[in-house]
Amino acid sequence: MNSLTFEEFASIRYEEPASREPEFETDESKSKSDETETETESESKSNKTEFESDKTDNESDESEESKSAEEETETIPKFPNNTYSDLMTLIIQHNLNNKAGNAIIRFFNKHSNLPTSLLPKNIEQGRKLMDRMKLINLLNKEKTNNNRNYNEQYTSNWWARTEKTLPTGSYLLSIILYSDASTTDSLGKNTLHPIFVTLGNIITWRRNKPDVKQLLAYLPIIKAKDDTQKISEEYKNIVRRTFHKSLKFLLSSLYDDNGIELELNNSIFWCFPRISMIISDWPEACTFALTYKSTKSNYPCHFCLVSKEDLSNINLNSNQIEPRSHNNMKLYYKNNTGKNVSIENVRNFFWSVPNINIYAATVPDRMHHLDLGLFQHQLNFTKILINKQCGKSFIDKMNNRVKLIPRYKDLKSFPNGFLHLALLTASEYRSLMKIMIFIVDELYEDSGSPNFIKNNKITEVYLKWNKMYLLSRKENYEESDVTLLQESINEWAKLFIELFKEHSKSELQFPKLHSWVFHICSSIREFGAINGYTTETYESLHKDYVKKPYKLTNKKEIEKQIMKIIRRKAIITESSSKEIPKTPIALKYSKKLYEFCIQNAEIYIQTRMNDPDLEKEMKLGFEKFLECLDAYLDFYDRKLSEHEEIDMIFHIYGGVTLKFGSIMRATNKFHKKPIFSNIAVEMNADEIFEYTSDNGVCFAQVLLITEIIMNYEEPMHLALVQWYDFTSSIINDKCINNNNK
Length: 741
Known about the structure:
Blueprint: E1 3-8, E2 12-14, H1 32-53, H2 57-72, H3 82-93, H4 98-112, H5 123-131, H6 135-139, E3 149-150, H7 157-163, E4 171-179, E5 182-183, E6 191-199, H8 204-207, E7 214-219, H9 227-230, H10 233-251, E8 260-264, E9 267-279, H11 282-289, H12 326-334, H13 358-361, H14 366-390, H15 392-404, H16 426-440, H17 455-472, E10 477-478, H18 479-500, H19 511-527, H20 541-551, H21 558-575, E11 588-589, E12 592-597, H22 601-609, H23 616-634, E13 648-653, E14 655-657, E15 663-670, E16 673-676, E17 678-682, E18 697-710, E19 716-723
Parallel strand pairs: 4-9
Antiparallel strand pairs: 1-19, 2-17, 3-10, 4-6, 5-6, 6-7, 8-9, 11-14, 12-13, 13-18, 14-15, 15-16, 17-18, 18-19
Helix pairs in contact: 14-15, 14-16, 14-17, 15-16, 16-17, 17-18, 18-19, 20-21, 22-23
Organism: Diversispora epigaea
Pfam families: Plavaka
Protein name: Zn-finger domain-containing protein
């Protein structure tokens, strides 16, 4: 690093260039740009229909010419480039005449500064090119790769199958249920069992927001007199019957033969509600399916009839796995042989519900299956294996490596390691997923002793895990992607079993392992992408609908009081006027470290540079501060000396939050450690050859974060940075004009 410059914050795109790998966290959702894209697509279809039904005379005249052109020249498969395509889409969608189109071309060519225009010479030429395009090539574009897409629920097999059963002219209303019992306080003395509802018709990123889920009811909880009654089979069956009769009471009204009328955007839609899936953890799924909850039962999987001995057998074929269905389970129930397939002796409400197989509808939950389930096992078995092979000192070495991982945005840090933590959250496990490869890599030297597990095998299992996990978080799956996910699951599971089976008391007979290997891909085909049915976005509901309202009650008739509290909040939310959205603040500074004025700047800076506790990065920043600032102002034909007679105040901050949430830091102490952010800066075209860049992006380290305040002028927000790989032969301390970035 040998060059320092001031950079305006507007040019800084993100904080750490080292973190380019895909994040595990699920933008929870989709971005607003996706929503806009969808709206544009639908708008395009409607405009196209209007256009086809109301052609202009101008285009009618051209139709004869296009016929002859098509006969005389060969067909064109597609537009020359995306810009050309966007222009003609704009012309056709909005029915623009040639004069308006030509004006757009001239405007684009004038301001694009491209050596060769990407657009036609005129709109007439563009129309003729479209006439030569073979329509069938465009229509068959989606079919060429023979791939099926699975993303939103309406792309799933369940949706297509269910729609066929509805009357012509009606719409499918997909009902998604989420249920989980929750303690009301930290002591766990009281429990409530809320059940929530949302709609599969709502796109996933929006459906994953808390306000799109609604409390349906609190299910009754039957309390036992004593521990003896609590373990009795009679009591357990009463609890199960009560649960399913409560569901029948709540949900039966949805299945009216005539459907329902739903008002939406001042229009009435004839809809038929259908329950599509139930989102829950494993014990709750067993409650819905009425299968045995014990993992030691003969057939513990609520999806299929696989024996407990085969739970860790990943080589089973489809003929060896019999799916559970309403028909075969009802037959066992009627013959009083439910024990043979591990189902409870209680009639399941969902057997009489149309368009649902309750055993498949209780979908695998990624958070409980992976984050809190299989990854936790993998982590524990890794520690057991390393301790057995190498000794406790290498476990401590792992822990010390975890301590050394620096802080980073959206990454949970473990400054004291992780061995002392008895209970980790799903978010903390996801953070460990991101760093475990670096923790176990080259942790110990290999030995030639029999059955010794080499270090690279441990690293490999975490590498395969991350590949599988990232694929599970995709928002859109083609059929080839589902196949790829299945292959990655099999590769990870094979190595996982090979490494850790002998260290497991049950020999890895985990229902979640079997369920993930054999049933997650079928769930994608049946209900869409996994992001649409994970409990990650539902767990927070317990705070708003159980724990917080409970604190406001007097602990008598709790359910009634909580319902009143929630209802009042809903009324206020519904009746209150919508607030005008505020313009987001472009910059938000953290703690102010230093403040000085232009008159005493040199003395103040020299004092700070003599501070022995100051990090070398900040000392270098102070050393070059005035020199670089003068160079920066010189770029605007101004001199620092011109401002000595007026007030110029300098604020030095420890960090700043940029407009889109990225955080930039330059401070001696951030959680007791120094941090000076690495950043990426998008360069101007005329400066790009003076730097070693990555497709126009250069990298630097932030030394100082400054705000400069002058009389009668807007404050300047600048960062003093030191470039990496500066290649210019010009003065090192060159400052760059970033106004146009």
